[in-house]
Specification:
230 residues; alpha/beta; six-stranded mixed sheet; two-stranded antiparallel sheet
Length: 230
Amino acid sequence: MKYFTVVVCIFATTLFGSAFGTGSQQEDNDQNGDRQKGNVLENEKSVKDHKGKYIYYLSGYDYDNRAVIVMEWGRWDIRSIAEEGGDGPEKFEKAVGHFVEKIQKGFFNKKANESETEDSIVVIIDFDGLNLRQIATANSLKLFMRSLAQLEGAFAQFAFGFIVNATPLVHQVIHASKPYMGKFLERMEIYGSNSRKWIPSILKKIPRSQLHPAYGGKSDFRPVAVFTMF
């Protein structure tokens, strides 16, 4: 693990020298109303080219009508994209860039009334399922860190957020990435795997009715909309 920590630090000083690519125009696969079970889609379909595997969803809205986005980053198979070669890694980075652009443009915002729209959103990033295998290669670690750091581009649009199920491995990556996404991280509350610590914090800011049970929500929860990142 000490060796891995050194590798992460070396990567962090070399990966972010160039500007991140901007997102290309693409359509999200909107599966509005699909039921969630556990931390994954109950009726996720087997689709070619990774569709359905890199899910994020509009969970609902907080007490101030800000959109709540949940990103199950720990379940995204980053290594498969990184190791398959071709233009997969570039396409994934562009997809994350496109997601950031959508945040900047208010794509997820709820219209409060005809003359007013909430400009900021809320995010829950869940690293449940992430293990060393996912980022154990040079290519997978590079893709993981560069993609995550792109969220810095929309830091001003994040009112607040939660990073949950952050293992020591995740903490190492976040620490190494802090110089490149510090403004985004300042708005996040970071928690480990003990949900008894972070569920009360989430419920102080987001109604139970707007959350999946994994985050303290109700058992009959349905997301507003489900998308695939890639």
